[in-house]
Amino acid sequence: MHASPRFHLALFLAATYPLAASAADTDSSPEVVVVGQKQPYRSISATGATKTDTLLMDLPQSARVLTADLLQDVGVVKFSDALDLASGIARQSNLGGLWDSYAMRGFTGDPNFGSDFLVNGFNSSRGYNGQRDSANTNTVEILKGPASALYGRGDPGGTVNITTKKPLFQPSQTIEQSVGNYSTYRTAVDLTGPLSETVAYRLNAAYQNGNSFRDTEHSESYVISPSFIWMISPDTTLSYEMEAVQQRTPFDRGVLAVNGRLGLIPNSRFLGEPGDGPITIKSLGHQLFVQHQFNDDWSLQSGLSYRESSLEGLSTEASKLLADGRTLWRQHRLRDFSATDTSGRLELLGKVATGPVVNNLLFGVDAYRFDDDRVLMRANPTAAAPYAIDIYNPVYGQSVPAAMTLNISTKEKQRAHGLYAQDQIDITKQWKALIGVRYDNYTQTFDDRRFLRNTEQSGNATSPRFGIVYQPLKTLSFYASVSKGFRPSSGTTSGGLPFAPESSRSYEVGTKYDAANGKLSSTLAVYKIQKQNVLTVDPLDPNYSVAAGEVESRGVELDVSGEIVRNLRLTAAYAYTDTKITKDNLFKVGSALPDVPKNSANLLLVQDFKLGDGVASFGGGANYVGERNGDVAVSSNFKLPAYTTYKMIASYKPTKKLRISLNVDNLFNKTYYASSYSQLWVAPGTERTITLKAQYKF
To answer: Of the N and C termini of the chain, which has fewer Cβ atoms inside 10 Å?
Structure first.
């Protein structure tokens, strides 16, 4: 396969970009990097990429950390909103708004489940955990490329690792109250401090209640997360955190396209039934960590994670639009899903020096068990009982279909364990290497109680990765990496056959540049990923998936963050993502994957200035998303149009204790479409949202 001229241009840019940036930096002559200063939008390290606190400059991969200050400025409440700030991440269909779903570099995993993400290094997306709230979030690490060499199963596009807020021995109490349009209000608290000389606590909690720009919709949620740390000795610590979540929100498939045309009905139009009530999601998670430092070079760390979750409720969903273009037949569904997920790991970290060469070693073993129980009842529309609605003049409150039939009744068990090793090698001051390998063994059983059939499969996989970094200057590095990954797929085909695991191979080259004053960082990456046995939604039965053969993604990404001049903060990102099916028996070869734009970009600028006796901030940003394939049947000609939205942010701190902020998202009330499952299920973008928040620190 021949590389395109655009891809060759991207390789050239990766090679020349840092040289141009270095030449443009008037302070680049002395090789001095300022450290120890507060840098609100810039982080110099990430833990998730290597399971050690590795400098981003030393990583042979693209990585971006969304800092706590950035998340606060933007007013992030939902985890998915934070991802708009990074390059190469695209929103995907999210089961009627019930979970987080996104694609990194074009890949999203199983479309019938939420997207994978980590919390403190543990997979926290398996099961039914709802849309993640930011109440206890400290930072969001965007780690590009496969992570299978460390974490096992995963997508080659990348991994997101959320780090939570930790207990502090310095007392601090913060309360915040938000109000917004659509009668929305939110209360949150963040309390921390010592309980004794060796024990500290933290409590993060939030409650939110409000309506929506969508007709008739009302939602309510809370999250409570207490955590503790115990300094058992100067060398040993034990920490624990709990997370209890409940969300009650209507199941909402969105609007529809009439004969491929969007915009014929308002984005506020709800096509379900208000009488169905909300879907209730409950999740209770626990994490326990023990760390012991043997000496300056060697340490041991271990962790346990347990989470149970459930999703239950009724929904009314679009099924068929009749030829008159206005009568919509609907289906009625009842979901009763539950899951438990248990994980554990043990890791030994050490440092060995041989002359000038330093080996930073990691050896680990982990295991998980996941049980998933699903029951779905469904009443399909018929000519005698169409359960129909006029999309232009909806009348709610129709008689519910009398009887539902069992559509899905399954129980799946996943069992897996892995061994992994990693060596970060400091060869010289300029040359660094990363070598890692992981071996996984897994078993899956799938009990289909409806059809009285049971399937089981087991297998193993070896996932290596290798990367090299060259740093001619302290502020400049070039890197290259290659890695393999795998992902066992949940469920079966509609015919009851298990899926072969997805496998992938990834190549990446790039360059990183830090301004000489240490306040601005940037990364330019070029990649190519090939993935086999990719799952996508079965166009004949959306309750199941099909394997789409082989898919390729190649692209270019640029991320910039930091302070460009005194008190002017910036974050910017651009991505070119070219995905296509390269081999398949069902879908058209050459088709792009759904909901993935070729071009996307975002920009945010915030200026601080003195105002009276306090400090004020004012800024704005823009988010551009290009045209996307809008149908899971990827050979369809249905497209979601490109869009650009703008935001405004402002805040004022009259004292060190009080902060008042105003955020306006979708400033000009742009009509757009965030994602799509099919022409009948299109998620409309949120209309203008205004949020006023007061935050007081005791």
So the answer is: N
